[in-house]
Specification:
The protein is of the alpha+beta class. The chain folds into two domains: 6-128; 133-155 and 175-279, Alpha-Beta Plaits. Helices cover 33% and strands 21% of the residues. It has helices at residues 21-26, 56-59, 61-67, 71-89, 106-115, 117-127, 181-214, 252-260, and strands at 6-15, 36-38, 47-55, 94-96, 102-103, 130-139, 220-224, 238-248, 269-277. Strands 1, 2, 3, 4 and 5 form a five-stranded antiparallel β-sheet that branches. The chain has a four-stranded antiparallel β-sheet with strand order 7-8-6-9, covered by helices on one side. Strand 2 (36-38) and strand 3 form a beta hairpin.
Length: 299
């Protein structure tokens, strides 16, 4: 990229350590750009920006606005960004920054790093030897055609099975002995609604248990809005709880085991525990630390 206008792309703040030398020597980031460290050099183990140089014509404001509408490009870029952070996490403590955190040049990035050096150092110390775990609760969808519920996509309940033959004919049931198709349908709908309400009740019980058990292991927690739309697959059910927990590395096994027990007696819900992840939910640098707007919006 020699001679071409470029911008400085920042993936994260990382605590300097010699253990990063090997991984960074071959690490590639967004747009297959080499990844390097940007450090003020004031403290051997102090915070540094993890950066790449990216072409200005592809990452300037107007170009990015168009590229963010390209879902394929956005997915590839997000994966590359996340990959860099996950590699860093294996060797040092990390404060992940948002996708497309850009500075006009290295001098501007270094200026921002110096301004927040003490705050970054304190955050990195807090996150040392800890990782983020995600905990989601889903309301499980009812099985199609299950007993007591009408077939999905049809307005009438399933026909009853034929009675087995017998040696002597059974007396014909009176008209009041079996409900009409209309009443049977209403009964099935009522049972379906009751089952759904029961599942939401179970989800609330699961949320209370998760909070109580996670508190034994986690040092911090964040509640995110439930995921909807394309972020969740229909077969997973409806996401009703979406929490993140910061868990010390030596407590991770206990944390997972405790939460796996939560839903054993709650058949109407499903609990998903993911991680370890870099602490995205717990990295909160001040607004002055990064040009999170498009680079053209800052002087």
């Amino acid at each position: 990229m020699t001679g071409e206008p470029s911008l400085t792309y920042v993936y994260a703040v990382a605590a300097l350590t010699p253990r990063l030398d090997g991984p960074l020597a071959h690490l590639r980031g967004v747009g297959d750009a080499p990844v390097t460290l940007l450090s003020p050099g004031t403290t051997p183990s102090g915070p540094a920006f993890v950066v790449s140089r990216v072409p200005a014509d592809q990452w300037a404001e107007d170009a990015l606005r168009l590229r963010f509408e390209d879902l394929s490009w956005l997915e590839d870029t997000a994966r590359a960004h996340h990959h860099v952070i996950q590699v860093l996490m294996e060797h040092t403590s990390v404060l992940p920054l948002r996708l497309a955190t850009l500075y006009q040049d290295s001098d501007r990035a270094l200026e921002a790093l110096l301004a927040e050096q003490d705050a970054f150092a304190a955050q990195l110390a807090t996150l040392l030897h800890q990782a983020e775990y995600g905990v989601k609760v889903y309301v499980v969808p009812e099985e199609v055609g299950s007993s007591g519920s009408p077939d999905e996509g049809h307005g009438e309940p399933a026909s009853p099975a034929a009675a087995p033959p017998s040696a002597s004919p059974s007396p014909s049931p009176s008209p009041s002995a079996s409900p009409s198709p209309g009443k049977a349908y209403l009964h099935a709908r009522r049972a379906q609604r009751h089952a759904r309400e029961e599942r939401y009740l179970q989800a609330g019980q699961a949320a209370d248990r998760i909070a109580a058990r996670a508190a034994r292991f986690a040092t911090q927690s964040v509640r995110h809005p439930p995921q909807t739309g394309p972020l969740t697959r229909r077969e997973n059910g409806e996401n009703v709880l979406n929490d993140s927990y910061l868990v010390p590395d030596d407590q991770a096994d206990g944390f997972r085991a405790a939460l796996q027990q939560v839903g054993r007696d709650l058949p109407g819900i499903r609990i998903e525990v993911t991680g370890p992840w870099a602490p995205y939910s717990f990295a909160t640098p001040s607004d002055r630390s990064a040009e999170t707007d498009f680079p053209g919006t800052r002087p």
